[in-house]
């Protein structure tokens, strides 16, 4: 379901941003505060390349994987159009196709981890991220602020307008601490066309992620609430 969701969004995901290139540059600048110069980076939820391309443009060696083959393929094309190389292909973060200790940094930004709906799956992903990190390598995750969201339990997001007058909004349908998200895209052609796609998320709290990262073998992680557009979790491979 998750791969199909992002396959469906791969062609238009950049239209969520008023200026996708500016957003890539801004996010890369923020993430680079936690990525040492010369680091080899795996973005294991690269999507169409928002974070991976931005980091590659700053000189990092980045490899991208994503559950969506269409998104990963587009990331390669978009990187090339901007003059950088980004090897990217489809892979599940619970089973990463890399040797032990292959990377200095593993990144899973933009609320990717909460697509995993059970503690067993989250642990499997975190253990794989740790396995492919070198000793003392760094894990960087970002998620929505689920500590607040679980209290508020919102039913929708405000609409936003991207380039070409594409209007986006979401409806959320709650089931305990999980929810189904309906993504609405309204495209203005001769009349308005509506596309709807669905995905499921676990509204996982910061404490729950920290606890599972420790169980996966990471050193104690730190949450930074103002360093990035989402809460940012930094942990070291102990």
From TrEMBL:
Pfam families cross-referenced by the UniProt entry: Methyltransf_25
Domain Methyltransferase residue range list: 41-137
GO MF assignments: methyltransferase activity
The entry's keywords: Methyltransferase, Transferase, Ubiquinone
InterPro entries assigned: Methyltransf_25, SAM-dependent_MTases_sf
Superkingdom assignment: Bacteria
An individual GO BP term: methylation
Name this polypeptide is given: Ubiquinone/menaquinone biosynthesis C-methylase UbiE
Species for this entry: Lentzea albida
Phylogenetic lineage: Bacteria, Bacillati, Actinomycetota, Actinomycetes, Pseudonocardiales
